[in-house]
Amino acid sequence: AKERGKDTYQIFSENMNTAYSERLKMEAQLRIALEKNQFFLHYQPQIDMKTNKIIGVEALVRWNNPELGIVAPNEFIPLAEEIGLIDPIGDWVLKTACQQVKNWQNELGLYIRVGINISPKQFQRPDFVSKVERVLQETGLAPKYVDLEITENGLMQNSADCLQTLYRLKSHGVKISIDDFGTGYSSLSYLKRFPIDTLKIDQSFVRDLIEDTNDQAIVTSIISLAHNMKLNVIAEGVETVEIVNFLNRHKCDEMQGYLYSKPLNPHDFESFLKKMKQQ
Ligand code: C2E
Ligand code: CA
Ligand code: CA
Ligand code: CA
Q1: 123 near 151, Cβ under 8 Å?
Q2: Residue 158: how many CB atoms within 10 A of its CB?
Q3: Any idea where the EAL domain is (predicted)?
Q4: What is the DSSP string of 138-179?
């Protein structure tokens, strides 16, 4: 009878109350997720379009929640940012991704870059650069293999401090990418001032590239802009051969997307590498 009562209550309160208590529950679970080792990383290959070889991977975090199963980052990263958990989670991602890529160097002789998503809050912390330095030291990974992915909005919030952080990272040899390029609210003027290596063309411009002439105009312009500024350019969300051909014709440097591979756990990534070698 007790159980029944609970069910009835849940049906009648299928409204904001439920949403709110669900959120509180998720919040409580997120607070203990790190110590319970519930986070893990998937790695998505990034392909050099000239050589057709894997030149890097992007590290993408997932949360193995005991009740909900695997939770995607879009569902918990915003919450983690709100409740002040993004720093410890971000630290874990940075450390784990660098350690993994260093292990692949040691064990497989595979020397590839790792793209690590950095939330604006993390990037703005005064101790961010020293955290990166410490991880590089602890893992022994050379800085040129680390590619920090930051959105335009993330760079705009305090631009004087931002500039200093970027220069300090650059002085170590760490790479900087602008994630979701073209979707932020900023002007282009920061491109002149900020020491950036790569523009990542957002997948919203890539998805319908073959049918949509506006997307074609945007993508070709971003590629020209990048090349004229001596920047590297990578297209995200590449799902078809037609899109690969288009990007090839327009001299895009790199690509990433489900066509080549979805994000993989380290074991599956290693199998994927072996299969590639046999071809
Ligand atoms: P993002 O940085 O733009 O990452 C690309 C997203 O697109 C990933 O989703 C990836 O799985 C997905 N994707 C890759 N190729 C394709 C494709 O061909 N088609 C489609 N439709 N999607 C593709 P995911 O892993 O769910 O990550 C979503 C977002 O969560 C990321 O967007 C990033 O903003 C954030 N995120 C992921 N990991 C981290 C992290 O460690 N730290 C922080 N701060 N944010 C993260
Ligand atoms: Ca990214
Ligand atoms: Ca992106
Ligand atoms: Ca995104």
Answers
A1: no
A2: 12
A3: 23-277
A4: HHT--GGGEEEEEEHHHHHTTHHHHHHHHHHHHHHT-EEEEE
- pLDDT at position 2 is 47
Testing ligand 1's pocket by substitution, the residue of 117, 149, 265 carrying the most ligand atoms inside 8 A of its CB is 117
Q: What is the CA radius of gyration of the chain?
A: 21
For residue 24, give the amino acid letter: L
- Ligand 1 touching residue 202 (CB < 6 A): no
- For 164-209, what is each residue's pLDDT tens digit? 999 999 999 999 999 999 998 888 888 988 999 999 999 999 999 9
Model confidence, pTM = 0.93
Cα–Cα distances (Å) from 222 to 18, 72, 100, 130, 182, in that order, read: 44, 29, 32, 33, 8
**b/e map of 51-73 (b: 16 or more CB within 10 Å)?**
eeebbbbbbbbbbebeeeeebeb
Averaged pLDDT, 102-131: 96
pLDDT tens-digit readout, 70-93: 999 999 999 999 999 999 999 999
Q: How far is the CA of 149 from the centre of ligand 2 (A)?
A: 6
- Complex prediction ipTM: 0.98
* Choice between 153 and 213, residue whose per-residue pLDDT is larger: 213
Ion ligand 4 nearby residues (CB, 5 A): 180
